[in-house]
């Protein structure tokens, strides 16, 4: 294979390009890329205009909203990186008020555009199985205990609340900071339909 035929692009830059360059116009835009992780970035904010995309801020695992939500998914006995839609689907059947803040440890927190509390997730583990990458966080066993105490639906509802609250704080904080109201999103977290509706 001729390596000259391959171009190595940053994972989150590719996400940003997919969101920005598929818009109807190339006017100034904030692009938010949020996922578990890719190329040592979990959450990134970009400013795009014309044919240029510029990184404004990026975070690694200290601000991985995606890994936090996926760890809850794993605690619910669904596959990390695949079963998050099931967590989202279960959430409306629960009441987060019955367990509000019990997942705070796992989620990063944003106030306006600033990260004010880092996620306390430990190391992630991954391995390949049948051509697919599998992920694991030890904290999923802690979440299993919370599920036993509060119930699956209520824990899913609290995870969804934390996801929406943090992404909204981040997005509206950057809109306020930059004055840019055109926004675009990409990355696995943005597959969450309820988050997109908010």
Features:
8 strands, alpha+beta, two-stranded antiparallel sheet, 36% helix, 198 residues, 6 helices, 4-stranded mixed β-sheet
Compile the SSE list and pairings.
Layout: H1 11-20, E1 29-38, E2 41-49, E3 52-59, H2 65-75, H3 84-90, E4 109-111, E5 114-117, E6 124-129, E7 132-137, H4 139-150, H5 152-178, E8 183-186, H6 193-197
Q: What fraction strand?
A: 25-35%
Which structural category do the helix and sheet elements fall into?
alpha+beta
Distance between the termini: 46 Å
Total helical segments = 6
Mean pLDDT: 92
Share of helix among residues?
25-40%
In words, what does this structure look like?
The protein has 198 residues and is α+β, with helices and mostly antiparallel strands. Helices cover 36% and strands 25% of the residues. The protein has six helices and eight strands; from the N terminus they run αβββααββββααβα. The strands form three sheets. It has a four-stranded mixed sheet with strand order 3-2-1-8, sandwiched between helices. A two-stranded antiparallel ribbon has the order 4-5. Strands 6-7 form a two-stranded antiparallel sheet. Strand 4 and strand 5 (114-117) form a beta hairpin. Helix 2 crosses helix 4, helix 2 runs antiparallel to helix 5 and helix 4 (139-150) crosses helix 5.
Give a quick precis of the structure.
By secondary structure, the protein is α+β, with helices and mostly antiparallel strands. The chain has helices at 11-20, 65-75, 84-90, 139-150, 152-178, 193-197, and strands at residues 29-38, 41-49, 52-59, 109-111, 114-117, 124-129, 132-137, 183-186.
């Amino acid at each position: 294979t001729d390596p000259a035929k391959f171009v190595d692009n940053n994972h989150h830059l590719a996400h940003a390009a997919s969101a920005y360059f598929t818009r109807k116009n190339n006017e100034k835009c904030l692009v938010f890329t949020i996922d578990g992780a890719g190329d040592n970035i979990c959450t990134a904010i970009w400013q795009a205009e014309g044919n240029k995309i510029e990184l404004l801020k990026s975070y690694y695992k200290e601000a991985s909203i995606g890994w936090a939500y996926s760890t809850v998914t794993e605690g619910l006995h669904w596959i990390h990186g695949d079963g998050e839609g099931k967590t989202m689907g279960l959430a409306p059947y629960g009441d987060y008020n019955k367990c509000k803040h019990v997942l705070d440890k796992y989620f990063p927190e944003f106030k306006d555009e600033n990260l004010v509390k880092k996620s306390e997730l430990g190391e992630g583990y991954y391995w390949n199985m049948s051509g697919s990458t599998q992920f694991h966080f030890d904290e999923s066993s802690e979440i299993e205990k919370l599920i036993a105490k509060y119930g699956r639906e209520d824990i899913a509802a609290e995870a969804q609340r934390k996801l929406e609250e943090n992404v909204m704080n981040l997005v509206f904080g950057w809109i306020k900071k930059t004055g840019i109201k055109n926004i675009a999103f990409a990355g696995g977290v943005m597959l969450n339909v309820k988050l997109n509706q908010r």
